[in-house]
Amino acid sequence: MDKSWSNQGKDANGDAKDQQLEQFRVNNDGKKMTTNQGIKISNDEDSLKAGVRGPTLMEDFHFREKITHFDHERIPERVVHARGYAAHGEFELYESMQEYTKAGFLQKVGAKTPVFLRFSNVVGSLGSVDTARDVRGFAVKFYTEEGNYDLVGNNIPVFFIQDAIKFPDLIHAVKPEPHNEMPQAASAHDTFWDFVANNQETAHMIMWLMSDRAIPKNYRMIEGFGVHTFRFINEKGKSRFVKFHWKPILGVHSLVWDEAQIIAGKDADFQRRDLWESIENGDFPQYELGIQMIEQEEEFKFDFDILDATKIWPEEIVPVKIIGKMTLNRNVDNVFAETEQVAFHPGNVVPGIDFTNDPLLQGRLFSYLDTQLIRLGGPNFAEIPINRPICPIHNNQRNGFSRQTINVGKVSYHKNSLANNTPSSSSASEGGFVHYEEKVEGRVTRARSKSFDDHFSQARLFWNSMSPPEKQHIINAFSFELGKVKSQSVRQQTVNMFGHVDKEMATIIAINVGVNKPIGEQSNVTASSPALSQENTIKLPQTLKVGVLIGDGFDATEVSNVLKTLTKYGVRYSLIAERLGAIKSKEGVQLMATETYLTTDSVLFDSLYVVGVRADNQAKFNQDILIFINQAFRHYKPIGVATTGLPFFSASNAKLGPGVVVATGNADFGKKFVDAIAQQRFWDRNIY
Ligand code: HDE
């Protein structure tokens, strides 16, 4: 078969998916209002009544249609991953994977494929907060010329359980407790930790969940993982095991827990806002796609089972090969139509990508289609614009609620002679999907492989790989979460369980949550995997946000030089003053404040630049500015202090030291401040 893979329909009018969506976009600007039947509406303010003060009449078709549509606006939220946010983009291939897979979109270097990526929180309801401690969903739909390929991943590379049959139990335990529907979007409660302690396969995942990975700074700075082991199949039919990784160009960065909780109140939409604004500003989020591969013959070479989704393949043992880059470059037009109605399914694969017997993956292959049938109201959701493949669809499926396609002709069965036996099936060489012919044998049994028994070695590998501040954060997270657990028995069981990961860690947690020291032995793993620590991540100043605390009387030359330097390095800033609008320097130069001390907060910025105000205006300013400085300092953030800002900084609880850059007597202030901003956190700071 001739595979001259094109650019997946990319041309000057946007990608093929964008062009397809364009057919469904409706712009009401400047148009006359009509009913859904197209009747022009004369009055949309008053219902039709018998007399101006009389009852509303049944014949008011406009009123009935409008209210009925409104009454039916909601659809069920996703049972998990309800709160999410998405964007469009493209995937570009760096290196041909032809040797390993026949997947069309992975053949030609430079080939571009339209994608749609939905990020999500697992536990909280649709209206919950962005910054909850939780796993983040990272679901990518590739609109390839061979059909849709969905890589439905998370930002953590392992999972809580090993067999999909336990998923309802896990989710029942972590969701709000059923008798009082509390707490919302939180794992810090009895039923979750009771599940953990009584299902010890969760150990590795819980270490990740208690780490900074579960409180990401934003969606742009998280990794994505396919989690399961999949297969690549090449043209010759050879199979290799593969794991997928997405690596953010800006590195992996997190919030601190106190900050995450404050943000939950100050801006519940913190992460979606960041994604939306970054794309609007042209700061397009980018992630490189990496793959790990294991030869078919090497399936049993490792001290873990490669089909066990509670295990990683340490990057130091199985290197990650970077093969392409995804760029998110377009926000949605309508969140309901696109983000809410998109339907991902790990079973959506293209020829060249196949499944393995991972029992978690196998169960997922059933669940997604099943849940979408109820969530999207029947079997025709693949016709919803966001879900439509960009290639032609032909089959004998018919009817069902809200069918859009008008299938012409009388034949809707296979085989037939009336339509020349079409639509016809395709052989592998014609691009037909042929499942990998894996040899399977065994007795029918409800059991788990012995090779899935080791729950603690990789949990300890993760612990060993953490830097001292990361270890402290894990201890703090356990102490917070278990501290909220009312049952002393559950607290004790959990501490005992994590004593198998690290005795000292579990002992400190035991003291913090008022239970006995752990009993039992800790895992004897001494290895570590540097790739797991966020201390080793990429640190860049680009797109980080500085809050400039400023008022009348600043030094125009000094401030404008610093702002220019920030811009030069791609740092974003907002001017925060007592009131919106113009602020004047001592020379009379004006700058515009876009935020006030009421409308924003230090937690919404990565760093502060303390400029200060004229002496006669200090009293009021002092109070506001001190709150900002104290909080940023306590959250280990970089702080730049202008010459006019020093009196304010000195009056705060913050101390000179790591991450505090002072302009007075510092010729290279701007650049040094940018370097500090790139570091993001200064953990070796003595906070009060
Ligand atoms: Fe999901 N998961 N999941 N999951 N999952 C859903 O499908 C399920 C698992 C993931 O933005 C549901 O359409 C089972 C692992 C993401 O729309 C549901 C099991 C991973 C999303 C479902 C898992 C994921 C979902 C709910 C255990 C990472 C959001 C709504 C075997 C690799 C996709 C829906 C979006 C959504 C089932 C475990 C990722 C119920 C049974 C492991 C990112 O079908």
From TrEMBL:
Residues 34-422 form the Catalase core domain. Residues 1-37 are annotated as: Disordered. Keywords: Heme, Hydrogen peroxide, Iron, Metal-binding, Oxidoreductase, Peroxidase. SMART domains: Catalase. Residues 1-10 have a biased composition (Polar residues). Its cofactor is heme. It catalyses: 2 H2O2 = O2 + 2 H2O. Its EC number is 1.11.1.6. It comes from the Bacteria. Belongs to the catalase family. HPII subfamily. Decomposes hydrogen peroxide into water and oxygen; serves to protect cells from the toxic effects of hydrogen peroxide. This is Catalase. The lineage of its organism: Bacteria, Bacillati, Bacillota, Bacilli, Bacillales.
